[in-house]
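Page 37, continued from 36.
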């Protein structure tokens, strides 16, 4: 077996799998391994890779002789016989070689016809560098490239015979000899330097050319009078054609003048601010008619959850590919679990946990409030934990504040500052939360914005709680829905 290592072979496979050519690396009884592989005359991308072919897949195997195509091309162009320096392997005909029986399944007399034995030789198409003289592309057959070079030489000789001069034929032959026949490979322009686009554009006077073209199209147009036609402005489908007629829509009208007005992403829509007492009246009217506070808290927590998911990265972050950096959220509740703000925080934590977010809630459990609440029990059913000790809080990607006190515990403030995560608030106090110490980026509010909201609350987002227009009307507000197709809209303070 060792005698066959380094031999060049051509292996034809069964089931029309083609022909593999290469150099034997490891011959075995049941398989053969080759490298420098060509498949149907095309070099594999990983040229140095080894290819192992099983014995059952081999139809025929033949030893071949690899011939340098560049040397053959030079001989054909010079039209001279092989020089004496040619190696004996290239000058002498190759004797027919029988393939070893351990590598082939062919019959002994498959290529024998009487006393005549044909030795089928094939050669792979080697890839040569472009800088090699008389470069021949690997993407075209060698016979085609040689024929084109030989035709160039014959044409040059014909030029001499027809009286075109002694130099024409040789010059044409030289050009044909140095031409790159591979149309798939562009010529090398590296020596010409970078293309100067500015100087090339300066050579082309577009204004003059366009005037000439326009003069040819409209020959009756006077040359002395310069007519400047106003081009018709085109609009997209989402642009307002009547820009001069800016309209303001007051879907919400109060019985008094509001302190502030806000705008949304919808141009022209104004949203007024209301006092805290008026907002409480709207919510209490809805609750007295069956739209309980628990249901309103659920809707507010739903809006806070949607904003939190967007801040955490949305669909790009919540992907199985990002399991190594799955988001973590910490929710701070300063009141016991059965108070309103703590219930909002626990409900938000439960909905975030249902999206797969790792949530930790800081909430107090000792309380004297007789009101019963199931929010803490529903939250713990998700498998996430809560704590009443600030030291148990771990680093996170987002901190959500659901508090009613504008001055938080110094330990909580220190945790938020050291964590350096984005801070979001749910219906915070109007004066903000520890202004100057905690930087709130986004705030979620229900119903309508309150008067005199501090700028430390960050960007405001209004949540649709689904309260009917009747309860706004009974509170003295003329109300028309402002949310459109969304349940959470951003607010911008009108200057």
């Amino acid at each position: 077996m060792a005698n066959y290592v380094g031999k060049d072979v051509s292996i034809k496979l069964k089931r029309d799998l083609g022909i593999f050519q290469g150099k034997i690396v490891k011959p075995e009884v049941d398989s053969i391994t080759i490298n420098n592989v060509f498949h149907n005359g095309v070099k594999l991308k990983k040229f140095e890779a080894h290819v192992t072919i099983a014995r059952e897949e081999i139809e025929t195997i033949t030893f071949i002789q690899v011939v340098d195509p560049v040397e053959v091309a030079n001989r054909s162009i010079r039209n001279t016989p092989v020089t004496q320096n040619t190696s004996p392997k290239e000058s002498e005909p190759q004797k027919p070689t029988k393939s070893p029986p351990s590598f082939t399944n062919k019959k002994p007399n498959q290529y024998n016809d009487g006393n005549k034995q044909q030795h089928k030789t094939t050669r792979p198409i080697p890839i040569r560098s472009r800088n090699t003289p008389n470069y021949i592309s690997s993407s075209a057959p060698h016979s085609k490239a040689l024929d084109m070079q030989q035709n160039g030489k014959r044409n040059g000789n014909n030029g001499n015979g027809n009286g075109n001069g002694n130099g024409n034929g040789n010059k044409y032959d030289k050009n044909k000899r140095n031409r790159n026949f591979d149309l798939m490979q562009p010529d090398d322009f590296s020596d010409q330097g970078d293309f100067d686009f500015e100087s090339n554009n300066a050579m082309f006077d577009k204004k003059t050319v366009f005037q000439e073209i326009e003069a040819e199209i409209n020959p009756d147009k006077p040359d002395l009078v310069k007519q400047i036609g106003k081009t018709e402005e085109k609009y997209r489908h989402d642009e307002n054609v009547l820009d001069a007629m800016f309209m303001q829509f007051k879907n919400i009208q109060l019985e008094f003048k509001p302190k502030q007005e806000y705008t949304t992403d919808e141009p022209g829509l104004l949203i007024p601010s209301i006092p805290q007492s008026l907002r409480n009246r709207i919510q209490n009217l809805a609750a007295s008619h069956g739209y309980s506070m628990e249901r309103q808290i659920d809707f507010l927590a739903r809006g806070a959850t949607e904003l939190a998911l967007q801040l955490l990265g949305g669909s790009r972050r919540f992907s199985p590919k990002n399991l190594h950096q799955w988001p973590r959220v910490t929710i701070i509740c300063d009141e016991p679990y059965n108070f309103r703000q703590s219930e909002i925080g626990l409900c938000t934590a439960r909905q975030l946990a249902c999206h797969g977010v790792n949530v930790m809630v800081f909430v107090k459990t000792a309380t004297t409030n007789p009101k019963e609440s199931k929010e803490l029990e529903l939250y713990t059913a998700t498998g996430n934990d809560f704590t009443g000790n600030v030291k148990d809080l771990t680093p996170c990607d987002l901190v959500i504040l659901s508090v009613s006190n504008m001055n938080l515990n110094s330990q909580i403030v220190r945790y938020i500052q050291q964590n350096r995560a984005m801070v979001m608030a749910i219906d915070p106090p109007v004066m903000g939360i520890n202004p100057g110490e905690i930087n709130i980026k986004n705030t979620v509010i229900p119903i309508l914005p309150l008067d005199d909201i501090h700028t430390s609350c960050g960007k405001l987002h209004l949540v649709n709680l689904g309260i009917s227009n009747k309860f706004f009307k009974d509170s003295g507000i003329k109300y028309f829905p402002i949310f459109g197709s969304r349940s959470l809209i951003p607010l911008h303070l009108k200057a």
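The radius of gyration is 42 Å. Flag for discussion at group meeting. The chain has 13 helices and 20 strands.
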